[in-house]
């Protein structure tokens, strides 16, 4: 039950975020999710460049965020 509520909350937050930034902007973004569950939910909502770590967690998610920023050249190469 908690997983269903968490996924539903995630969907509401992502839909609100997409409305704020616009659908076109999200097509050009890499989306860093904390794990495969949130990644699948993001993909179901139409987000395209969804990335997530093999092992969920804050540290591994932070590494994915860094990778996304490096891809966009917003962080120097490691």
Automatic annotation (TrEMBL):
GO molecular-function terms, A-Z: uroporphyrinogen-III synthase activity
Catalytic activity, reaction form: hydroxymethylbilane = uroporphyrinogen III + H2O
Swiss-Prot/TrEMBL GO biological process terms: protoporphyrinogen IX biosynthetic process; uroporphyrinogen III biosynthetic process
UniProt keyword annotations, A-Z: Lyase, Porphyrin biosynthesis, Signal
Gene3D superfamilies reported in the protein's UniProt record: 3.40.50.10090
SUPFAM superfamilies: HemD-like (SSF69618)
Annotated EC: 4.2.1.75
Pathway entry: Porphyrin-containing compound metabolism; protoporphyrin-IX biosynthesis; coproporphyrinogen-III from 5-aminolevulinate: step 3/4
Position of the signal peptide: 1-16
UniProt record similarity statement: Belongs to the uroporphyrinogen-III synthase family.
Protein function: Catalyzes cyclization of the linear tetrapyrrole, hydroxymethylbilane, to the macrocyclic uroporphyrinogen III.
Protein name: Uroporphyrinogen-III synthase
Species of origin: Chlorella variabilis (Green alga)
């Amino acid at each position: 039950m908690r997983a269903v509520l968490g996924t539903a909350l995630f969907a509401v937050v992502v839909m609100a975020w997409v409305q704020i930034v616009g659908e076109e902007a999200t097509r050009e973004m890499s989306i860093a999710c904390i794990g495969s569950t949130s990644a699948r939910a993001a993909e179901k909502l139409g987000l395209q460049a969804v990335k997530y770590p093999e092992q969920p967690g804050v540290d591994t998610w932070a590494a994915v965020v860094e990778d996304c920023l490096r891809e966009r050249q917003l962080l120097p190469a490691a």
